[in-house]
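Example record

The entry below shows one chain as it appears in the dataset: sequence first, then structure tokens.
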Amino acid sequence: MKKCLEISNSISSILFWSIMSFILVASIVLLYFTNKDLYMFLSQEDSFFENATAILYFVAGSLLIISSLSKVKRSKIFWKEILTLLLGLFFMFIAGEEISWGQRIFNLGTPEILKEYNVQNEITIHNIKFLSNSFSVHRLLNIFGLLNGIVFPLLYNFNKSFRKLLNILNFPIVPLSCSVLFGIAILYEIIISELYHHWVHAEVKEYLFSVGFFIFSISLYRGKNRLEDRHPA
């Protein structure tokens, strides 16, 4: 059981967390079909899924930052932890964007300069007209989740040259234990949107991504995310 819970690249851990991922998504699908009103309510702005997403990204970012700084303190080598530190800061940024940097919590007004350019009249960057008109932020998030949650972990585990490169860069690699969740999250949004097209499905997808990155952050913090920790490359 201990090996299942370690969140690593071991077969037992992959199977356990894949089953947990299916259970999580199945429970959301069940909610959608049994109580669509509650599903829609939980998916709205400032409701459960958005707030949970912000919290999970904030904790994930904190764990990555703490882990990277503690390693720098021990090794005195800063450059090896740059990517992990940047990813941690990026997660913190996402957390802030999710709740509009506390705008509604603290009842803050939107600066005039943002009112003109922000499509949702919020203190956020991802809703600026230029970004919304040029490309879909949600599409970019899908690409980010696909690459970091599925493509890179698979290449890392099954391609020695790619693994060697990521080890040299000390790239913060997601363990395969989390990959199934990212795949299901992407498929979930695509399939459920065909049944009932609505923007709230993207909020649920983002929540599932945040769960995946949160689990990954625990794995990295505990030093279990890299294949070399179990089987030297």
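Notes for this example: Residues 2-229 form one domain. Residues 48-75 form the longest helix (28 residues).
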